[in-house]
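Quick bug: UPF0102 protein A2639_02040 output formatted oddly.
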Amino acid sequence: MSTKELGDLGERLACEYLVKKGYNILDKNYRISFGEIDIIARKKFKLFGKNDKVIHFVEVKTILQTIPKNGRPSILGNSNSRSEPVEGFFPEEKVDYKKQRKLRQMAEIWLGKNKFKQNYPYQIDVVGILINENIRNAKLHYFSNVVSGN
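Here's what came back:
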């Protein structure tokens, strides 16, 4: 599996997870000159109950764990993921301060281009996925509000 295929699989799993959790997917793979936002989502409107107006900009990090014949795990990552660390590595740890700042800038650009008010509430979330190819299993961890906006 190539890193592109791995990334696409991780984003598809993350979208499925978000939809099951009550989100509408507003946009995917939003690209501008200096980066990309994997998923943009918002909680579905509820007729009765509290409605969350926050726009969620979601960064997906995926790791493929394979266990070769020698029994030592190895990883291939497009991004990253959590669960048990693979040789001490959690994919969501790749969303460092520099990446968070870039995501925030891209989120604000997306909001402006889509005619949301300047102070519209948003947050940056991270989905970490660890895929074990040998047992065809994926573990997904959702980290909400790793970077707050407005």
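Actually, after a second look the formatting is fine. Strands lie at 23-32, 35-43, 55-66, 74-77, 122-132, 137-149. Closing.
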